[in-house]
Amino acid sequence: MTAILETRDLVKEFGGLVATDHVNLTIEEGELVSLIGPNGAGKSTLINLITRMLEETEGEIFFEGDPITDLEPHEVVQRGIGKSFQTASIFPELTVEENANIASFGAEHGSFRFNFLKHRSSYPAVQQRTLDTLEAVGLRSQKDTTAADLPYGDKRRLEIGIALASEPALLLMDEPTAGMSPEETQSTVELIEDLQEEMDLTILLVEHDMEIVFSVSDRIAVLNRGSIIAEGPPDEVQGDPSVQEAYLGGVEL
Amino acid sequence: MSDEVGSAAETEADSEPVDESPTLYERWRQIHDNESTVAALTILGVALAPFVLVTLPTQLGLPSEYSWYHNLLTLTLIWGIFALGYDLLLGFTGLLSFGHAIFWGTSAYAAGIFSANVTGSPLAMILVGTLTAVLMAWIIGWISLRRGGIYFAILTLAFGQMIYYIFLSPLGDITGGENGFTGVQVGSLFGVVDLGRAVPFVPEAFVDSWMYVFVGAAMILSVVVGYRILNSPYGAVLRAIRENEQRAEFVGLNVWRYKLMAFILSGAFAGLAGSLYVIQRSFVPIENTLNWTVSGDIVVITVLGGVGSLFGPVFGAGLYMYVANIVSGMPVIGEFWHMILGIVFIAVVATMPHGIWGRVDWLRDRVADAIGGDER
Question: Interface pTM (ipTM) of the complex?
Fold first, then answer.
């Protein structure tokens, strides 16, 4: 197994606050790694550093062996890191098909093209990818629906579909089941497991629902106050006293 | 017997669109979204507008001072091209520019000064004017698009004011300062066609001059190019940026470059329109070209017509031009035309959220429903 993503001594400071404190995280190809930690532990900051939404204070990030710290967010996506957002981040006024279509253009055509006089339908590879994407997340029958009119669970599925259209090697999922009903949560978990098997996807999952985390993860990294305090297979992490301390330490029982 | 015939006719009328022969609605859908249909409709509209708006009302007894006149129609088409390009930015990309007078104005000056010093060929003037606008859009977009929302609007406004004052005073020797540039020398098209002349064999009731044909051709070209852009990958990408910029970035699209392209394309339309304006007027008045009110007018026109539609802004230009040039000349109320325009603007925004064209679309959907389509 080779490392697909590696952070070396990654530090992010906001003023005096250290949100990411010398994080060394390595993710192997094909793994599903969960990132957990109490609120404010720095999970989102770490994700945003990897996607290049945030500029690091110190340290380096390597993707498939190459440093990515000098890249723009869209360049990171083009390299093969996809992101699914915490809220259903879609294009609400466009149809389901158009949503997937845009993601397919990004995947097939790279970050920019000078083709403003060519008709969209003259790119069959893009159209095919659009349909494949809709098929993968089970929304093909609703392709003409305006995305804003979908039920919440379907919006999240569409969101995941958009993130997957580019066939990323690594998918960052930020709380994919937040705000979902138990049934929707169940079907999303199944979707994640299917995707990992079918598409050889490596996933970094940020999730609050411990039941999901412990059932789907190959490995869990626990973040507290910006640094990784424990890392390992689920059963190992579960019994780690420092993890229990981090989750329960501040609470007067 | 008669009973049978009746029921047969009834089943045919009630049959679902799944039937072997396409319904009227389906046939209409097939031709509706198609470039040649759009071009044909535009040609028809441009060709019939002078007769319907200028000739017919007078013959029906409307006092000629309340009716459209040929020059105003030409001017409307010119502003329509400007608005069509502006809507690419406002309606489709979701960027509010308050500096589009820059592209309309600098192209007008470039075309005018070029005609006085090099050649008055209308096509050459358009080329020079449009290229100038593209260059300006490139530079100003490159700087202004680093900020979003209100900051972008303010930056474009600031650049507009800067260029207005530069043209007014430091460059006064070249631009004519507050008098405007008066040396415009418009030559003939291809060296043979004088744009001011009447078109042979065509009655004046339809087309009064070559100028209208020339501007009309530019309008048709603009609509076709605009339609192409909206149906190209850009059409999808720009709307995606309008809807959710962050998401667009995270499907791997270089949002910044697409926004810059939208700005430049929109500047190119403004440049074409600005050049045509000078060709029509043979004069570059600074207050009607670079003044910030022009940047405001184009926003009003686009919103009136309907943001996010291809044809809407052209109709917005028509309404605006009618109020500004004809209602303003009417007795008693003429003096208050600015107020009337304001009231019209409020009424349109309050009752037609998608502008005049939004209403047309709504009507079309009703008609489509009536002739047997249940989608859209």
Answer: 0.88
